[in-house]
């Protein structure tokens, strides 16, 4: 009798490929702040003093714009004779939030004035009252000599983008 050789394959058990997902989402909104009574605010608020916009929500967080009519003295690159603008995280318990902004002086038609628009690069705001902005937004004498100051008022637009990272958990395949 002949012998029969049988060959059997041994199944190797190992996990099927794993996968995970990392995705970023962004939310962009616009807030317009009207400054009424510019000359009076300029008299009332000395350098380093400010007023704020009402709070507005973007990316699940509350924000305010700080307007310094006579510059922010504590800012790097401080130059007297300018107005300063800062975006400030106003949410309590927010932790770290990544955002970027663009501040623009608006013309009479509500359009940004190209020469008076400033990008605020992406920044990590480290909790409530953390701010980032433009120390030398517009020279006061330039604004005062322009058509953009009408009836002692003007408007500033803040376009803010909040970046949120969403990560899913690792997904493992089934074993044999």
TrEMBL record:
Domain MATH: start-end pairs: 28-160
A biological process from GO: protein ubiquitination
Superkingdom assignment: Eukaryota
Family matches, as CDD domains: MATH
Stretches of the chain forming a coiled coil according to its record: none
SUPFAM superfamilies (alphabetical): TRAF domain-like
PANTHER family linked: BTB/POZ AND MATH DOMAIN-CONTAINING PROTEIN 1 (PTHR26379), OS02G0311150 PROTEIN (PTHR26379:SF511)
Name used for this protein in its record: MATH domain-containing protein
């Amino acid at each position: 009798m002949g012998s029969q050789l049988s060959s059997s394959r041994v199944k190797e058990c190992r996990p099927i490929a794993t996968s995970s997902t990392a995705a970023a989402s962004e939310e962009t909104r616009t807030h317009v702040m009207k400054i009424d009574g510019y000359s009076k605010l300029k008299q009332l608020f000395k350098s380093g003093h400010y007023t704020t916009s009402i709070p507005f929500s973007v990316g699940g967080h509350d924000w305010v714009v700080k307007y310094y009519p006579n510059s922010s003295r504590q800012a790097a690159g401080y130059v007297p004779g300018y107005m300063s603008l800062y975006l400030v995280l106003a949410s309590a318990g927010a932790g770290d939030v990544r955002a970027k902004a663009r501040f623009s002086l608006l013309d009479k038609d509500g359009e940004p004035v190209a020469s008076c628009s400033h990008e605020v690069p992406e920044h990590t705001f480290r909790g409530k009252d953390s701010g980032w902005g433009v120390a030398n937004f517009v020279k006061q004498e330039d604004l005062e000599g322009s058509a953009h100051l009408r009836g002692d008022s003007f408007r500033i637009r803040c376009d803010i983008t909040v970046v949120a990272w969403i990560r899913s958990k690792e997904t493992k395949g089934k074993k044999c």
